[in-house]
Write the structure tokens for this entry.
Amino acid sequence: MPEISERTQELRSRLAAARAAIGEAESAAGRPAGDVTMIAVTKFFPASDVRILAELGVADVGENRAQEGAAKYAACADLEIQWHFIGQLQSNKCASVVSYADLIHSVDRPKLVTELARAAAAEDRQAVRCLVQINLDAASTGSLRGGVSPSAARDLANSVASAEGLEFAGVMGVAPLAGDPLPAFEQLREISAALTEDHPSATIISAGMSGDFASAIRAGATHIRLGAAVLGRRPTVR
Ligand SMILES: *Cc1c(COP(=O)(O)O)cnc(C)c1O
């Protein structure tokens, strides 16, 4: 039998626990098993972890820094996985992200739509799938965590949908740091429902992290983004 590394064993057991908890949350929400797509957030962890996760059946990974994501993608180009860009995006990084991301979760201002469309044309990509990130924390004016205000979501969604080379695929949100996340995720679902009236195929709701994914699943998330729950504590915060 081939030797299994300690890290493989650790990731395997964390993944099994996360998958079990996701299954429980799906069932508690009256949703079918496997309804929710789990994205393993590999930021700060090495490309070797992406490789192990792929072997363990993970099909989606998320990165929040453009350069780190690009380097990991290059190291894992042979793997059959979907790359998600989930971090705050600077306009000068759009070209890099468009070169490897299958889904960009964090479109939160018109300037990004322009830059992403420009990058899509330069990379000759027909339909870069994008989510509009909504600020679910009415108290955060500094938008530390990013996101367009709910009242501006429709205009931004329309501009993504009409941009050449981009496809509007749904919404993303991060719950406020304090308090019950459920109302925030319910607000996100309501915004999604309003936007899908005009954009019926934009059904993705990316919500929920390691600490609050059960609430997100209850509120209708289609995609959850798990870092610590799957990878363990992040090695360093740079
Ligand atoms: C890091 C990150 C996550 C994962 O966070 P965990 O709490 O480790 O699960 C999810 N979403 C975004 C936007 C992140 O930056």
